[in-house]
Amino acid sequence: MSGVSTIDESATNALQDALAAEHAALWCYGLVVVYLDAAQAAQARADADAHRALRAKVETTLTQIGARPVSAQPAYAIPQPVVDAGSAAALALVAETDALAAWRSVVERTADRPLRQAALDALTEGTLRCSRWREATNTPPPIPPFPGR
Predict the structure, then answer these.
(1) Does the residue 28 lie in any domain?
(2) Which residue pairs, CB below 8 angstroms and at least 24 apart, start in 81-85?
(3) 149: buried, middle or exposed (CB in 10 Å: 19+, 13-18, 0-12)?
(4) 92-116 pLDDT, tens digit each
(5) Half-sphere exposure of 27 (CA within 13 A, CB side)
(6) Range of the domain at 19
(7) Does residue 147 form part of some domain?
(8) How far apart are CA 16 and CA 145, in angstroms?
(9) pLDDT class for 138, splitting at 50, 70, 90?
């Protein structure tokens, strides 16, 4: 997201929401990884690393434009208890779906070219992560027709 010049309040708010979604995704991955088999746990760790890197970029961007980045919450509400690999994969899917919605909002709320490109990249990479969890949970189609909607 480097190269972001100036963005308006609407775009800043959308970027803060994306940061909040990244915080939540990381929290979710921290919870689910212990319930997954070795292959899925490795994927969850890789996905968490991607979210961690993206979160750092968003925090840097917000700081550069003079906005204080939102903080992570100590815990997040989840739609259902995580008790096994299936419910863990379902929560990973929720985390990715929520992050996609936040990044789509950034794309829709900025005209800043570098920020739009960064949000589009986040949306594209997130769609690939989401598709793996959709497949793991047998949620068709593997790639939703409008990611983030």
Answers:
(1) yes
(2) 82/31, 82/32, 82/35, 83/35, 84/35, 85/35, 85/36, 85/37, 85/40
(3) exposed
(4) 999 999 999 999 999 999 999 999 9
(5) 17
(6) 9-136
(7) no
(8) 26
(9) very high
